[in-house]
Amino acid sequence: MSSFIRSRVRIAAMMVALVGFSGLASGQDRAAVLKERQDTMKEQGKDLKNVKAYLDGKGELAPAKSSATNLTKTTNKIPDLFPRGTEGPNPTGDYAAKPAIWTDWNKFLDAQKTAVAKANALVVALNGGDKGAVQAAYADLGKNGCGACHTTFREKIEK
Predict the structure, then answer these.
(1) Where are the alpha helices (DSSP H) in 56-146?
(2) Contact 73/44 with Cβ under 8 angstroms?
(3) What is the Cα–Cα distance from 81 to 46, expressed in whole angstroms?
(4) Distance between CA 67 and CA 144 in Å, rounded?
(5) What is the DSSP secondary structure assignment for residue 84, as one 8-state letter?
(6) Count of domains in the chain?
(7) How confident is the model at residue 25, as a pLDDT?
(8) Alpha carbons 127 and 137: distance in angstroms, whole number
C-alpha cells in the first residue's frame, strides 16, 4: 500500500473516531441538559412553595421575596434549558417535553416571556406587602405563567 493511501486511511479512521466521540459527548451533554432542566423546575417548585407558605401564614415574608426573585432568574433561563436535541422524558421519566417546543419555538418563547412577566409581578406584589395582591399574583403566575406553559409544552408520562 502506498504511503498516500495509508495516510488517507489514517485520516479516515481519525474522522470516524472523532465523529464517534462527538456523538458520545453530545449524549453526555443531552443528559446534563435534561438534568439541569429538571433541577431548575424542581427549584421553581420549591420557590413557589415558599411563597405559598407565606400566603398560608406558615412562612415568613423574607424567604418568600427571595424565592420570588429567584423565580424571575430561573424563568429567564428557560429557553437555554431546551436546546434542540433534548426532546423526550426527564431523568425521572415523569414528564416529557412536547415536540411543540421546537416546532413552534416562537410560541414557546412567548409563553416563557409571559411566565417571566408573571414572576416579576409576584416580586412587585411581595415588595408591596399587600397579601391580597400577592395571592392574586401567585395565582396568575400559576395559571397563566407556569401552568399555561406546562399545559401546552409538557406531557405527563403515564406509567
Answers:
(1) 61-76, 100-103, 105-128, 131-140
(2) no
(3) 18
(4) 19
(5) T
(6) 1
(7) 38
(8) 12
Cell readout for 91 is: 431523568
- In order of 25, 69, 104, the CA distances from 99 in angstroms are 23, 30, 8
In the predicted structure, residue 18 carries a pLDDT above the cut 80: no
Residue showing cell 412553595: 49
Q: Name the residue with cell 427549584.
A: 43
Do 153 and 108 meet the contact criterion of CB atoms below 8 Å apart?
Answer: yes
Least confident of 93-97, 104-108, 139-143: 93-97
Distance, CA of 122 to CA of 124 (rounded, Å): 5
Residues with Cβ within 8 Å of 147's Cβ and at least 6 positions away in sequence, in order, are none
CATH of residue 30's domain is 1.20.120.10
- Domain encompassing residue 64: 3-156
Output the pLDDT for position 3: 57
